[in-house]
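::Encoded backbone::
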Amino acid sequence: MLTDTQVESWLVEDVGHHDATDDVPGEARGLLVAREAGVAAGLDAARAVFDYLGVDAEPQVEEGDRVGAGDAVLAVEGPARDVLRGERAAVNVAAHASGIATRTREAVDAARAASAAVRIACTRKTTPGLRGVEKRAVAAGGGDTHRLDLSHAAMVKDNHVAALGLERAVERVRDRVSFATTVIAEVERPADGPRAAAAGADAVLFDNLPPAAVERGVERLPAGVLAEASGGIALADVPAYAATGVDVISMGSLTHSAPALDYSFRVECTAERDG
């Protein structure tokens, strides 16, 4: 969950040392409104911005709901100057998260058209300081968050293999972790999948391989070993990879390249406060 320190840093970044335009008296109501169709996310984060400022904020839809142009997703009410102070940070985080959720839903739909069982997952290619927001947005879009940090699974990557060799790298990690920790081995050739599995990998990630090569790799894996495809997979590529038989397709583009969903924030000022 977001901390007050994180929210404060967003506001400090945006407001700076002074805002000459915030001397607005009275109360205000505001609506965060979608200007295009998409999937809503980041509303809890936007609400946290207004909560920090003492402004009442209520989501109008659930995280993960589809929204259309003109739909209100968040309603706020409070002192006008604080509503305006929180506007940009709240809109930014909701737009960013909703864009991620929308792109994720598109990828999930594309994958499910080819395979009902395959999962779409994100990666650790997230914006510093925003990983929690971005991972929750992926979940809102129907995707899998994958590992949240390095402690959530042990992944043997290409640089580990370059330093130690595939089998030794996997065996060393397997020996160091709990039986409950998933060990994932990244390979760049179909034939290396069975080697990684024999060394103790629970899952094999086929990295930067075309769909045909991934399919050959999946066919060689022993039963019970999960197969993952990753590496520069774009939305248009998803159906082809989903048809290879992999269990998971992981896409860094879900978090680092998804365009923000277009939102507007409409404010209506009401009567001035006493005094």
The chain has two domains: 4-102+259-269, 108-256. The chain has a mean pLDDT of 95. DSSP finds ten helices and twelve strands in the chain. Residues 4-102+259-269 form a domain with the Aldehyde Oxidoreductase; domain 3 fold (CATH 3.90.1170.20).
